[in-house]
Amino acid sequence: MNKYLKIAAAAVACATVLGVGGLMADPINETLTIDGQEMVSRTKAPEGHPFDEVYSGWLFRTEETRALQTDTFNNPAMLGVEVGEAIWNTVDGKEGKSCASCHGDAAESMKGIGASYPKWDKDANRPINIELQINKCRENNMGAEPYPFDKGGQKELTAYIKHQSLGTPVKIDLSQGELQSWWDKGKELYYTRNGQLNLACSNCHEDLMGKMIRADHLSQGQINGFPTYRLKSGGLVSVHNRFRGCIRDVRASFPKAFSDELMALEVYVTWRGTGLSVETPGVRQ
Amino acid sequence: MRASLHSAVAGLGLAIAIASGATAAEVAPADVKFTEDNTVEASLTGTPGDPAKGREVFADRRLGNCLACHANTDMKDQLFHGDVGPSLDGVASRWNEVQLRAILVDSKKVFTDATVMPGFYTLNVGINVREESVGKTIISAQDVEDVVAYLATLKE
User: Fold this and answer.
1) How far B145 CA lies from chain A's nearest CA (Å)?
2) A143 and A21 both lie in a single domain
């Protein structure tokens, strides 16, 4: 791939018809480097993928937003990651253990792990994501209560674990257990029109990728940067919260976090980002 | 925009179907009649559209939210116009009112099922509609008439 060149916005075709919008249409032609480490933010799509190339959501954000992600020192989400690190080392639950008691230094034990989730969980007989794996360890190994969705430090600890995979290309193993059938289910959901506005994920993130929907530059809807930091709300956003937000926006009722529907979507959407570097924590508008 | 010759004839009294709970003489979504040429000839309410109100419905994010997908120079004071659909500048020179009404009521009937433009006065929608929107259209019959009247002012 390209060497670390900072190509200014030059290559970007300005496709807005009127002066009113005045924003770019295509993903920017730039390489994301974080603290000098080059990320894979565009790459050849896996076989059977609707796109030739997969793009990180970073390529669709404004210059100012993009800049926040190039340096962990400036990245506002790193505060959350640090909270996650503190939780990692904090004893909780009846067993008097912390995550570190068993897993030691996360930089070693969790390196690259987040890039291959969701995985198949034999015990639960369904896919498991990092959030659910954390809960599993809390319940089974620490004698602690599982975190409720998005609460108690779930987002921060998830961001901390995923951050240990920074730069590692996303790759899930669909041959585990019945993961393939969850992928199938996720694909079906992805292409199903929902809600009063009657739109599917694929309408916005595939058919309209690169277009402006009001002020939003439509990306491929990838999740390699999650949990991401949203400047609008000033906090970390989990994958399932983002999915629910997109479903709510088409005026559909949205499934519960970690429900079969959203886990199937997560399996499928993760696969759609195969080969992209984990960028956690990404920064979004 | 100044007033124009909107829906002069407007099919007064033609609208007979009465939706339960709706104003008398309002055509229910399922009863809107499309001609073979994909037009909706009759007014949905019998009350002539008000272009000024239509302009508001067009811009309102909770109602038409048309700027999400369409640019419109008449609203250049508003930031950020989408480019999902074509610019609506001069749209009344491309489509007449009975066609515009049909596009608004159910764009899928005029374009194709693949269009991403929502149908604004149809119950032919996606699955799992949120509770408060079940059985409801995005905008009312009179809103449709008002937006049609507004679009009719957008001439080349």
Assistant:
1) 20
2) no
> For residue B12, what pLDDT is reported?
35
More confident residue, B94 or A4: B94
Chain A interface, best mutation among B128, B132, B136, B138, by max A CB count within 10 A? B128
Q: Per CATH, the architecture of B25-151 is what?
A: Orthogonal Bundle (1.10)
How confident is the model over A11-15, as a mean pLDDT? 31
> Rounded CA gap, B82 and B68, in Å?
5
* Contact present, A170 and A268 (Cβ < 8 Å): no
Residue A272, min C-alpha distance to chain B (Å): 22
Q: Which residues of A touch B71 (CB under 8 A)?
A: 16-18, 20-21
| pTM (two decimals) | 0.91
* SS3 letters across A263-279: HHHHHHHHHHCCCCEEC
Spell out the domain ranges in chain B: 25-151
Residues of A annotated as part of the active site: 246
Domain that holds residue A109: 78-163
d(CA B1, CA B88): 14
Searching chain A, which residue's CA lies closest to the CA of residue B75?
A20
**A56 and A180 both lie in a single domain:** yes
pLDDT attached to residue B73: 97
Contacts of B81 in chain A (CB under 8 A): 16, 18, 20-21, 212, 214
Shortest distance, CA B55 to any CA of chain A (angstroms): 17
Least reliable range by pLDDT among A10-14, A256-260, B151-155? A10-14
3-state secondary structure of B76: coil
CB A261 within 8 A of CB A240: no
| A26 within 8 A of A209, measured Cβ to Cβ | no
**Structure confidence at residue B15 (pLDDT):** 37
Collapsing DSSP states into helix, strand and coil, what is residue A236?
Answer: strand
**Interface touch A252/B118, C-beta < 8 Å:** no
ipTM: 0.86
What mean pLDDT, rounded, does chain A reach? 92
Task: Tell me whether B73 touches chain A (CB under 8 Å).
Answer: yes
Q: Which of B22, B6, B17, B11 is nearest to B96 (CA)?
A: B6
Residue A283: its H or E element: strand A283-284
Kindly give, in sequence order, each residue whose CB lies less than 8 Å from that of residue B72, ignoring residues fewer than 6 positions away: B58, B66, B81, B87, B88, B89, B154
Candidate from A17, A197, A214 with C-beta closest to B67? A214
